[in-house]
User: Fold these one by one.
Assistant:
Number 1:
Amino acid sequence: MLDSRIRGAWDRLMKPVGAALARSGLSANAITVGGLLLQLAAAALILDGRLLVAGAVATAAGLSDALDGAVAKAQGPGSVFGALIDSTTDRLSDALLFLPIAWLYGVSPPGDKSGQEWVAALCLAVMVVSFLVSYVRARAEGLGFECNTGIIERAERLILMILGLALDLVPVALIVVGTLSVITLAQRLLYVRAQIRSVSAHE
């Protein structure tokens, strides 16, 4: 999880940017959709084996995801539907990052990546665990429990995967992201279980 001071500084940096975009009439939902389209372009670049450019485009898509939140805050209380759209597009964007990588390594690997079909299987496993990390938090909060814990969240996953693309170290990035995501999943499950036991003990 990003240090709270870093996240706080980032939020302060994004606040005037979000306010300016909100005044321009650009909606948070439009930025969300734009980010998804950028991620779709990054997916196409990954399939074409152009990993460095794909990393740059994926970075722009990630920044769009940060901007839509800043614009939503500047426009006032966010809508429930907007939050739903944001969460849904986050999962789609994640899939558009992991699935093309799995295809590249497992179905049509270029010469320098032949014989690394195991990376495709690892990529799909990491995608599932990443989705579970997000799902556990959403489900726990839906049940009324706090679940804002763990050593890696979506922002960190994206940063590590983008670095993996840019440096052509995708297998290493997947191993790191997968390991940290498994740890985070366990942390969240244990954290919520402790809250459930605490509530039960006071009933």
Number 2:
Amino acid sequence: MRELWEEIKERLRQKVSEGSYRLWIEPLKFDRVEGNTLILKCPNQFFASWVQEHYFPYIKEDLLYLGMDIKIKLEAFEKIKESAKRQLHLPKFSPTEIPRPNLCERFTFDEFVVGECNHYAHGACWEAANGSSSSCRTIFLHAASGLGKSHLTQAVGHKILEKRPRARLCYLTANDFTQQVVSAIKNNAMDALKKRFYTQCDCLLIEQVHCLSGRERTQSELALALDPLIDGGKIVIFTGNQLPRAIPKLSDVLRSRLASGIITSINPPDFETRKKIVARKAKSQGVDINSETVEYLAHHLKGDIRRIESAVIGLITKSSLLKRPIDLGLAREIIHEIVGEPDTLTVSKITDLICCHFSLKPEQIRSRSRKKEIALPRQIAMYFSRKYTDSSLQYIGKQFNRDHATVLHSIKKIDKMMKTSSKFRSQIEYLTSQVEKHKWR
């Protein structure tokens, strides 16, 4: 359940501003589960009241999204005054020193699942972190939310600090940088802020640069800070959900800096990558999920990686709380709660799939032709139509311009051929896997 709460916090990070997240969400700590209630610790009673009024709807929404219909209760820490003093103020930044980066422990290269969707981005970041290529010093990672930009960026930070513990690494968001600029202007400390980047930064990791749109002063100061870093061959990595050329209200000077190195996009994970993510996430929780369930989850959980990981955590948590085994039945419940019912297979869809496999047109398979290259695919289509739909023999026959007796004969023939020919059986098993995949899309 602790892991589930961390997943929910990551989801909340995407729904509220960075300042609100740091002030009200980050301090919330998982404590325990009592019956049907999730107990969270917070600094004090005022804090609890504020979170309950303004953020409980978001938390409950994410719990329901993950299939967890449970209550939430907040309890205050014992050292109320000390905690309140520490938590109830916006974070302050020293203009003269680089703060120690706050990197997520699990955002490492070892935990990053590589696939066709992110192979180039991973390779570029790996080269940058290991310093093995002079061309991979400045990188712009472009991707939609939840596809691994932050993971790769922080993985670079972890690897650099692993190889060079004394490296001066600065990891911040565009909003963090904006707050630093505003604070420095207010305190007449711009020179100290610039000096910090000029002389005390070996590696700059800056996220969500699209948030700088329209912030002219911040853009100007960032461009000035970037020049000595890029010119000095320092490692600089940006992330954004828009390509540099597409970010509106961005100065040409800063746009040029953002696009001065490698620009790479991370695409949504493909099916094979999604399978790896499901298996990896389950393994990290000490759970093995059978291949059938892994494939079912991978076919349904398209889109961002957080959604996939959250579903796996929800599946494991539901299994634990309900004392039920993790199987296809439980996975279907989780998927139903997340994406709804899967598309229903029809005779028409099965026919299209068989036609595609045998390079036929639907009108050929429905024709009166008795040629083997057409008749056998027709019989296979009838076989799968009976197996995967609730259609009657009469209805199936009508779709192929045949009667119900012909359909029954076709089914029996396919069954017999599977028993007598291992080669044919392998072909049907392959087609079965394709029909199953189509069923789960």
